Amino acid sequence: MSETLPWGWYSDSERLERERSAIFARGWQYAGHTGQVEHAGDRFAARAGHVPVAVVRDQDGELLAFLNVCRHRGAEVVRESGNRNTLQCHYHAWTYGLDGSLIAAPRSEREPGFDPAGLSLVPLRLETLGPLIFVNPEPEGPPLAEVASGIPEALAAGGIDLDALAFDRRIDYGLEANWKVVIENYLECYHCPTAHPDFSRAVDVHPDRYELETADWSSSQHARARNGDGSCQFHFLWPNTRINVFPGGPNLSIGPAVPSGPDRTEGFFDYFFGSEVPAEEREELIAFDAQVGAEDRELVESVQRGMRSGLVEHGRLLPASERLIAHFQSLVRDAYSA
Ligand code: FES
Ligand SMILES: [Fe+2]
Q1: Which residues line ligand 1 (CB under 6 A)?
Q2: What is the mean pLDDT of residues 305-326?
Q3: CATH code of residue 36
Q4: What would the pLDDT profile of 30-79 be if each residue is shown by its tens digit?
Q5: Are 116 and 187 members of one domain?
Q6: Are residue 167 and residue 257 in the same domain, yes or no?
Q7: Do 68 and 90 sit in the same domain of this protein?
């Protein structure tokens, strides 16, 4: 059996600072969906890890993302969803166009030499998968399509037409556990028979039939419903996006896991359904997911307390059943050494 990452890496604030710059300031992260920015002038605030992001639809209908940081003294410019033809900071009312350029700053005419050029909002990369909007604070690097390669194909093969999904609701969560504990818990179903009895009754979690796959920047789990009615897909996209499809009518949930401290993770899931999925089935699916989530909360918060004891250096990974965790941990190590 191989060793896990050192457990000291899961409750250390210096380590988290390194992760913020080496992992969360890079990499494609789910920000929201196109239903939030349907019309020119629509905008919403999001985050890529700790990085504040503004997503805007401009006058030409293009989706743009900016670092949501005012070039004056750093306030977040977009704080709520809405529609206007400018972006105005709530601190001193510096006003930016939908293209991010600074168009007005009160009293600037009294300041000789005030030059708005060079004071535009910093643009960030934005790409979409169907209605799903991803942003990346790093100016260079591979496109989303390359990083997520295989996931849209797997979804299509599972009967999910991304463009036919409509947003249903967002559910927020917070967990007293390091973000890596949360991701690692997601990446194996070795714990399913013990910890998720209802899930394991509904889904075939036998290791001969529960499929695990890795790609360069993602990993996937595929399983079938025991009643023969459909399949599940669970995709992880580096560094912190999870995409779930449950058996039943077309459905997908997606969301980020974001560290708000070394011992705490916050995030949300956005749920999407095909228009034909009735309300009752939606409620059932979301309740089922909430039950699994409550069971997972017990696990990850318990793991966090165990690791934080500081008295054991690391754990062990089963080479087959936990290979997606090994894959994730090697991406973490690569990011630290990059
Ligand atoms: S910080 Fe935005 S206008 Fe001053
Ligand atoms: Fe679980």
Answers
A1: 70, 72-75, 89, 91-94
A2: 96
A3: 2.102.10.10
A4: 999 999 999 999 999 999 999 999 999 999 999 999 999 999 999 999 99
A5: no
A6: yes
A7: yes
Quote the ipTM score: 0.97
- The pLDDT, as a whole number, for residue 229 is 81
Mean pLDDT of the chain: 97
| Secondary structure in 3-state letters for the chain | CEECCCHHHHCCHHHHHHHHHHHHCCCCEEEEEHHHCCCCCEEEEEEECCEEEEEEECCCCCEEEEECCCCCCCCCCCCCCEECCEEECCCCCCEEECCCCEEECCCHHHCCCCCCCCCCCCEEEEEEECCEEEEECCCCCCCHHHHCCCHHHHHHHCCCCHHHEEEEEEEEEEECCCHHHHHHHHCCCCCHHHHCHHHHHHECCCCCCCEEEECCCEEEEEEEECCCCCEEEEEEECCCEEEEECCCCCEEEEEEEEEEECCEEEEEEEEEEECCCCHHHHHHHHHHHHHHHHHHHHHHHHHHHHHHCCCCCCCEECCCCCHHHHHHHHHHHHHHHC
**153-205 pLDDT, tens per residue?**
999 999 999 999 999 999 999 999 999 999 999 999 999 999 999 999 999 99
Q: How far is the CA of 196 from the centre of ligand 2 (A)?
A: 7
Residue 9 lies in a domain: no
Q: Is residue 1 part of a domain?
A: no
Q: What is the mean pLDDT of residues 143-157?
A: 97
CATH number of the domain where residue 172 is located: 3.90.380.10
Number of domains in the chain: 2
89 CA distance to ligand 1 middle (Å): 6
Question: Is there a domain that residue 14 lies in?
Answer: no
Which atom of ligand 1 is found nearest the CA of 75?
1
Looking at ligand 1, which atom is closest to the CA of residue 94? 3
Q: Which domain holds residue 236?
A: 148-337
